[in-house]
């Protein structure tokens, strides 16, 4: 018997009406990037985190890259990182121009 890693269909079915409505609003209004829905999300995330700003990005990898840059990592810097992680964790260090140094 195959056990799924994660059952997205089951999760989707729990909130199907909300998701379908939100997707239809995007199609109806043409806000595929930016626009009021993203501004609202960014505001709500900032409030939830009790910070001044929230920034919506396209992916978790982009979020990691912004975090590395916001931490002050500069091109040429050496960044200590785990050698046992998802590749995006290290690739963002390289994308920021820094050099990953693996530790165990």
What's this model, at a glance?
With 104 residues, this protein is mainly alpha-helical.
Walk me through what this model shows.
This protein is 54% helix and 10% strand. The chain has a domain of 71 residues. The chain is mostly helical and 104 residues long. The two termini are 35 Å apart. It has a two-stranded parallel sheet. Helix 4 crosses helix 5. It is extended. It is built from five helices and two strands.
**Rg of Cα set:** 18 Å
The secondary-structure element order is HHHHEHE
Silhouette: extended
Round the mean pLDDT to the nearest integer and report it.
Answer: 92
| Proportion in β-strands | 5-15%
Helix amount, in percent?
Answer: 40-55%
Structural class: mainly alpha
The number of distinct β-strands equals 2
Strand order of the largest sheet: 1-2
Biggest pleated-sheet summary: 2 strands, parallel
Which regions have little confidence, pLDDT < 50, spanning 5+ residues? none
Query: How many individual helices?
Result: 5
Which SSEs are present, and which pair or pack?
Blueprint: H1 8-14, H2 16-29, H3 35-49, H4 60-70, E1 78-82, H5 87-95, E2 99-103
Parallel strand pairs: 1-2
Helix pairs in contact: 4-5
List keywords for this structure.
2 strands; about 100 residues; single chain; mainly alpha; extended
């Amino acid at each position: 018997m195959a056990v799924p890693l994660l059952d997205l269909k089951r999760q989707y079915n729990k909130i199907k009406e909300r998701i379908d409505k939100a997707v239809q609003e995007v199609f109806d209004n043409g806000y595929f990037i930016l626009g009021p829905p993203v501004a609202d999300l960014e505001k709500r995330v900032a409030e939830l985190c009790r910070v001044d700003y929230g920034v919506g990005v396209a992916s978790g990898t982009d979020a990691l890259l912004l975090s590395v840059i916001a931490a002050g990592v500069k091109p040429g810097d050496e960044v200590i990182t785990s050698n046992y992680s998802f590749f995006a964790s290290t690739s963002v260090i390289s994308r920021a121009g820094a050099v990953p140094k693996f530790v165990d």
